Amino acid sequence: MHNERFGNALALKKQSIPPIWMMRQAGRYHSHYQNLRKKYSFEELCKVPELSAEVAFGPVDDFGFDAAILFSDILFPLEALGMGLRFGEDGPRLGWHLEHPGDLARFHILEEAVDFLKFQKEAMQLTRKKIPSDRSLIGFIGGPWTLFCYANLGKHDGNLVQPKVASLLREGFYKKLVPLLKENIRLQLEGGAEIVMIFDTAGGDASPSFFKDFILPPVRELIKTFPGKIGYYAKALPKGSLELLTSVEGLLGFGLDHRWELPQFLGNGKHFVQGNFDQAMLFLEPAEFRHYLLKWLHPFLELSPERRTGWICGLGHGVLPKTPEENVRTFVETVREVFQ
């Protein structure tokens, strides 16, 4: 049970029409989500498996995306470890912050934390049952570095001085977190995920040297544990860091944001590449949007199907709130129309 186009992209098989999947495709911009949000809290939509499946199903049903993705949040492993988590109008808030190595002793034991996260496996199972059999299913976790930034600061706003210099705290955190993330990935794969993406939002806010020494090692450990099952995405990842990432054996693929010229990375024979239309341009007026989209697609059209292998068409980052649904629909229809 999977989508043929998505499966071909993962397997690096040539095809005319690329699969389409957008990060945050099930979210605040979508009327289906908004209607559910009137009845339920964000936490309920994530933690009640039936509701999570319904949210994930919405955009696949409406826009015809080739893949659904687990509807959840990257911060739940921190809650599973005992840090507390609440979502308000101003975003997520942890119950306490990790400030000293002694705070690590406050974390729950691994077995207890894994048990907490079992709602994600059930959500995956119900999503798999709800979406059409010819659609694929993606899981995800937060990157260890990004989760450390949240655990340490309570947010990720670009000011990462404290997590960058807290070496002992960071390493102690990784030792507690990585075993949990391994089990988190395992739960999602057992629930029906074909791949699991690591969303390391803060991964691009570091030099290649820092990335190599302090961000990549736990990511490499996760990839080594699940070779051929893990994709990676970090916003604004610099060239040097991307080169380090793509040298990791077992990495299935990676996402690129709109800062990159994506066609040069396709057909590499090693990885799928996800991306990378500028999500802000979905706010153009409909006629102007279609014109801009066709211009963006032109370099891809100049490539042969062999040179386009591995491409999963989507956005440079996630769908933004208030994005016009009409343009999302036009995006999907236009891509399939021009590549026939």
Automatic annotation (TrEMBL):
Transmembrane segments: none
Superkingdom, taxonomy of origin: Bacteria
Domain Uroporphyrinogen decarboxylase (URO-D): residue ranges: 19-28
One MF term in the entry's GO annotations: uroporphyrinogen decarboxylase activity
InterPro entries: UROD/MetE-like_sf (IPR038071), Uroporphyrinogen_deCOase (IPR000257)
GO cellular component, one term: cytosol
GO term, biological process aspect, one: heme biosynthetic process
A Pfam family matched in the record: URO-D
SUPFAM superfamilies: UROD/MetE-like (SSF51726)
Name the record gives this protein: Uroporphyrinogen decarboxylase
Native source organism of the sequence: Leptospira perolatii
